[in-house]
């Protein structure tokens, strides 16, 4: 006879499966494209070849729930939110939902294949009034860069090089530009999510003016010490945020950590990829 705890666990599992079925209405459109919806009900166009992100969106309607929770804790109605490395637009759509009609989302995706789908996803949800899309690679300066990507793991697309493992790597020239130029007419932003596969230090070098006038600012940043080390010392990178008035924490699957020092942050990650939550109150 199952115990009460076992029955509760089974019930929770069944409820999860029902929820997944409710949100996983996927329509194949042909030419590797499908229209599905995320757990909030918003529609999103995806590439059926992608086994990293899109497979989760089609089956579960959700991606990286702990990162989503970390972002949801800082993105509020009426805010200005930057999604740098937007990919298929999961966080762009969530951000547009969170900021509401009085807020604004600036989404940046350098992969032209994905940008076309992202543009349709914004339109089908009626978010054209609050989302501005950019096809640039966000960088430290203006230049033309080679963007590399695979269809199977599109989330790994990057201007920083790297291989595609067993997958065919595709290359395309993209125009790179700094945030200080792209958002020169924006008075301030409130939250920035940056996930650009190792080019994060270059993004910040080109965003000094924007960050200076955005004193109350939260940053959610992918961080991998080995990738940062190709550009600068990871300790100097993290210390630069602290010196600029940011408190440092990690977004972990178990939740957001308490404020950490630079050495403690590096020790906690111990070389693995993680997500920083950096907050500055003004």
From TrEMBL:
<dbReference type="GO" id="GO:0008168">
    <property type="term" value="F:methyltransferase activity"/>
</dbReference>
<keyword id="KW-0489">Methyltransferase</keyword>
<dbReference type="InterPro" id="IPR029063">
    <property type="entry name" value="SAM-dependent_MTases_sf"/>
</dbReference>
<dbReference type="InterPro" id="IPR006342">
    <property type="entry name" value="FkbM_mtfrase"/>
</dbReference>
<feature type="domain" description="Methyltransferase FkbM">
    <location>
        <begin position="83"/>
        <end position="225"/>
    </location>
</feature>
<dbReference type="InterPro" id="IPR052514">
    <property type="entry name" value="SAM-dependent_MTase"/>
</dbReference>
<dbReference type="GO" id="GO:0032259">
    <property type="term" value="P:methylation"/>
</dbReference>
<protein>
    <submittedName>
        <fullName>FkbM family methyltransferase</fullName>
    </submittedName>
</protein>
<keyword id="KW-0808">Transferase</keyword>
<dbReference type="Pfam" id="PF05050">
    <property type="entry name" value="Methyltransf_21"/>
</dbReference>
